[in-house]
Hints:
This is DNA-binding response regulator, OmpR family, contains REC and winged-helix (WHTH) domain. By secondary structure, the chain is of the alpha/beta class. The protein is 43% helix and 22% strand. The strands form three sheets. A five-stranded parallel beta sheet has the order 2-1-3-4-5, with helices on both faces. It has a four-stranded mixed beta sheet with strand order 8-7-6-12, with helices on one face.
Amino acid sequence: xxxxxxxxxxxxNDDLRTAIVAALEQEGHKVTGIESAEAVIEHPGLSGVxxxxxxxxxxxxxxxxxxxxxxxxxxxxxxxxxxARGRPQDRLAGYQNGADIYMIKPVSLxxxxxxxxxxxxxxxxxxxxxxGAFRLDTRSxxxxxxxxxxxxxxxxxxxxxxxxxxxxxxxxxxxxxxxxDPAQKTQSRSTVNVTIFRLSRRLRQAGTxxxxxxxxxxxGYQLCEPLRLE
Length: 230
């Protein structure tokens, strides 16, 4: 069972929003339903929200733009994006703009509840990462550490952000493939190996240990250094 959370459900479909709010309230959470990005910004209790369930196809300002602004203002807030946009490049954009979890509609209430429980376990870890020696500025695409600052590509920044937000800093190989090759033109493990090698080199240039990312045989990779996202 997830810890009791303060959750904002941002969804313009009235029936769906009402159903999600009711289901999460039954699980003991404090839940507020909000119909648009503009209403989110005007909401007086936003600073006290732990987690946001966010539809991307909102009227007016879309969910990606809202997520980016919320992430800048409240870096510790958990964001679950729920959308019909399922292409790899859409997922990449979601993670680059602040998603902790990206879910493709239709999403059952049971699956959403499980995602919230997983993210609630992760929130405490993300707070601890705030003290990390290494920082990633996702807007300027700059990685900074004890040895100085290093420029990274947009794909490298998206991958680092995904590592930082993942449970225990771990990503499966298929997740890395989607983030590094959004067009799915060269889907292969060699693509992942090259990207991880380059990313490790960037991290070492910023001052990390010699092995900032370790391979998990038959599964994926783990970021071994604390990283703060800005």
